[in-house]
Structures are given as structure tokens and as C-alpha cells.
Amino acid sequence: MNILLTGGLGYIGSHLALGLLKNKKTKLTIVDDLSNAKLSTKNTIKYLSKKKFKFKKLDLKNKNKLQKLFKVGKFDLIFHLAGSKSVKESQINPKKYYENNVIGSINLLHAMIENNVKNIIFSSTATVYGLHKKNCYSENFSREPINTYGLTKKIIEDLLIDLKEKNQINTLILRYFNPAGCHISGLLGENPQGIPNNLYPYIIKIIKGEVKYLKIFGNNYKTKDGTGARDYIHIQDLVDAHLKCIKLVKKKSDIFNIGTGRPYTVLDIINSFKKYCNFKINYNFYSRREGDIDIYYNKISKAKKKLGWSAKRGLKEISQSTFNFAIKSK
Ligand code: WQD
Q1: What distance in angstroms lies between residue 96's CA and the mean position of ligand 1's atoms?
Q2: CATH topology assigned to domain 2-180+232-258
Q3: Annotation says 149 is catalytic
Q4: pTM recorded for the entire structure
Q5: Fewer C-beta within 10 Å: the chain N or C terminus?
Q6: CATH topology (fold) of 199-230+262-324
């Protein structure tokens, strides 16, 4: 099967590339604009997979380059992971998010239709839901995103749903909760340049000794210990969910929440590194971040029933793989 993976050198994309390359029938083309990924990750994928694949540095905003790629590619399936994903940045620079996420996706869909490529699996996010009274989010919750990042993902979902209803494409939309953890080799993980916004990449900087302590944003949330609670899903479980979609996408379009159904607080995460890695994370409490909510996690029934997938890993695997990656990438 001829697969195009957009954003394939990123944190999630690179792990998915390894999963796809395990199938010897896969002919994989990775595109990435390298705005949030390192070219060296291409060599890491080659080293770990021992397989050949094509890579092209490509910005989805470049329609001509995209058209040329599709002319030669003859793709059967698209995994669309490329996009900007910082909530904080999206609030400061919405234009970048409309261009990268929405226009980039429109160009991709245009190229698919022009070249009669039918199947697309889209990397969406639980951030599309926004705030809800209930903490356990299911796929039929209304989508009321409270930041530009979430809004762009909702817009792309709506385009996919419209094209599917017009029988132009088949699509599976995966709404990720909080991806975490690293590849078992310790050679792939989330290691953004600069000071990360997200919790786990920040903890990686602490383990590497680049920052001294964790700033915990808020300790008066309505959770068991007052710190924010999220549904952290191991990257390998996330990859397994994508691989399950390959067969299903041709048969039935659908939308799935991808999470574990088990929320953990920031203090739970800190304790997991002590318990499973014997590593103490120092921290101080700070005021809440704007837009952060107390707790949300996934209602897991639909993916379990219709995709035949559920998460197998927990905080032990997440903390140990994160610690292993941080030590190796020192
Ligand atoms: C998790 C918890 C923070 C950093 C975001 C995006 C979401 C998805 C995942 C792409 C919260 C607390 C964090 C820190 C802290 N990304 N925290 N100190 O905000 O749940 O979700 O990333 O799809 O779309 O919104 O993840 O890791 O930033 O925060 O106390 O230095 O950790 O308050 O409770 P979030 P996060």
C-alpha cells in the first residue's frame, strides 16, 4: 500500500512511521516542513526500521510542490499529521494557524480530489471539545473550541465530514487526548527547541538538567490534589490506534476519541517518576494558565467497540520511556 504521511518527522509522526514500516507491503512517503522537527529524525527512523522510505521537505502551503508529489506518488492512503499544535502560540499568532493548519489541509484535500486519492486518516485533538460540564468526553459532545488551535482542527474536521458526505473521500478522524512517552529505544521522543509548553517535554528538560524545577500551573482545580488532570496516552498506543484504522477507513468513515479513560493529575505524574524511575522532580506552584481546565479524559467505549482498540500502557511505561529518552538525548 502506497502511503503518504504528512508531518512524519514530528513526535507522533516519527513513531507512526516506524509502525507503518513494520508492514513490508507499505511504500511510505514522508513529508515534513521541519518547522517543528529535526531532519536527523529521518536517519533515526531509517536506523530503527531498517527499511527504505521516501522523504521530501515540503510545506503544505506550497500547492505546486504538493501537486507534483501527488502526480508521482499514486497514494492509496494519507495520514495527515502535519500542523502547528501549540495552544499558547495559536492565541498569539492565529494567522500562522489558519495558514499552516487550514490552508495546508485544504491544499492537501485539493490534491487528493484532483488525483482521485480517496482515503485520509486525520490527526485531530480533544481540544476541539472545549469546556464541558462532564469531565468524561465522548465523540458526540459538541465541539466548542476555546482557542485558535482547536478551532483550526474543528474547521478541518468539518471539511472532511463535508467531503465524505459528498462521497469524495473516506475519512477517519482521531481526536487525541494527551500524547506522552517515547520510543522504547530511547532514540525518539518529544524534544522541542526552546522552553516547551507541554508537561512531558518540560519534564524531559528537567531530567536532562536544562531546567531546575517544574512550574505547576494551578493547585486549586477541582481534582483530588488541586492540580490539573489529563488523559495521557502512550505514543505507542496512539500509533496502534492509527494502524487499526488502515483496514477500517475504506469500509466506514468515523470519528474516534483516542485516550486511556484514566485521568492523572500533575502530582500523579511527578510521583510516577519517583516510583518508576526513582527520579525526584522538584516543583513550585504558579497561577493557572489562561484557558486550562480542571480535568478532562476520554470515554473509551467507541474506539474499543468499533475500532477494536484500547490503550494497553500506563504511567509506568510513559515515565520509564520518557526517562530513558531524556537520559539518552542528554
Ligand atoms: C497538561 C497539564 C497543565 C506544563 C495540550 C493541548 C492539546 C494537546 C496536548 C495537541 C495541565 C499542567 C503543563 C507545565 C504544568 N496537544 N502543566 N506545568 O494543555 O492538557 O493539552 O497538549 O493535540 O491540544 O491543549 O497539555 O501538557 O500543556 O498540560 O503544570 O510546565 O499539565 O496545567 O494541567 P494540555 P499540557
Answers
A1: 20
A2: Rossmann fold (3.40.50)
A3: yes
A4: 0.97
A5: C
A6: UDP-galactose 4-epimerase; domain 1 (3.90.25)
